């Protein structure tokens, strides 16, 4: 039985004192800051284990790390594949004059910074202070620009590949980062890497689920869900919801005479043109819903503006040995609370209009009248 004077035996039979256990309630406690850091790592592990977007995971990690290590600011950056450029994705905390929380174009070249070069070449953590004569001059210059006194960086290695950098600063006059903070950051980035890996996989799966693999446009599922949302979230003041249905004329002949590779090239070229033209109407969703058929859903824009863009596309031709063009039909419904029509009926009206345009070989968009009263009638073929 063990007690305060308990001992154990060595191999030669001699007694060896053992450490007596601490009485209950008398065990040494971890320092408060160390305990809070362990708890923050546990919280991060829980949070990154849940489903979430990459942005949400980075935000949770950055805010948690800033509090745990007493940083003035924390930034997360991504190494752009195939380059020596690090692009900042997120800044939190006390930001410098030129920093934004979600920057659009904040980049740094690894060849400009000794610290960044060390990180990209060897995945090595580093610490820099203003008063250290051996500090990287460019990093010191950056600290002065940000109004900070010290900085620390740690590599983010995801699935065995350097993915980015986790960067923290402290204000002038505050103690610089030490070994404890470096160790914490290394543990945090190891946990964060798992969350990033999962988020990227989920984004890839979502991309596959909602996008056409050939063109990168939305697919039928994405179109249907967006249309359902537009009808389900009707506002008190009705707003126009317009669909444009476009069909490629000549795709079958291209496939038959020049092969499906050329046919795919035609499909991608048409998709690119549709994406470019409808980008002028913010929020427009361009989808490929069949082999040669595209549907565009536009919410809240003047139907005349939608038809004008469609007419421009109808006037284009693609010459791949055989001339190809588009036949377009459009339909609009005013969606408000109490609207009885549904997306399926709106799409059907657009299909009928497109059929009229194709049958008449028209180079302008055929527009249906009142969708609510034309469910059984085909739009009239222009004379």
What does this protein look like?
The protein is of the alpha+beta class. It folds into two domains: 32-208, 2-Layer Sandwich (Beta-Lactamase); 220-373, Alpha-Beta Plaits (2-Layer Sandwich), CATH 3.30.70. The chain has ten helices and 14 strands. The chain has a six-stranded antiparallel beta sheet with strand order 5-4-3-8-7-6, sandwiched between helices. Strands 9, 10, 11, 12, 13 and 14 form a six-stranded mixed beta sheet that branches. It has a two-stranded antiparallel sheet with strand order 1-2. A hairpin with a 3-residue loop joins β12 (318-319) and β13. Residues 1-10, 14-31 and 374-383 have low confidence and may be disordered. One of its GO terms (molecular function) is diguanylate cyclase activity. Residues 239-369 form the GGDEF domain.
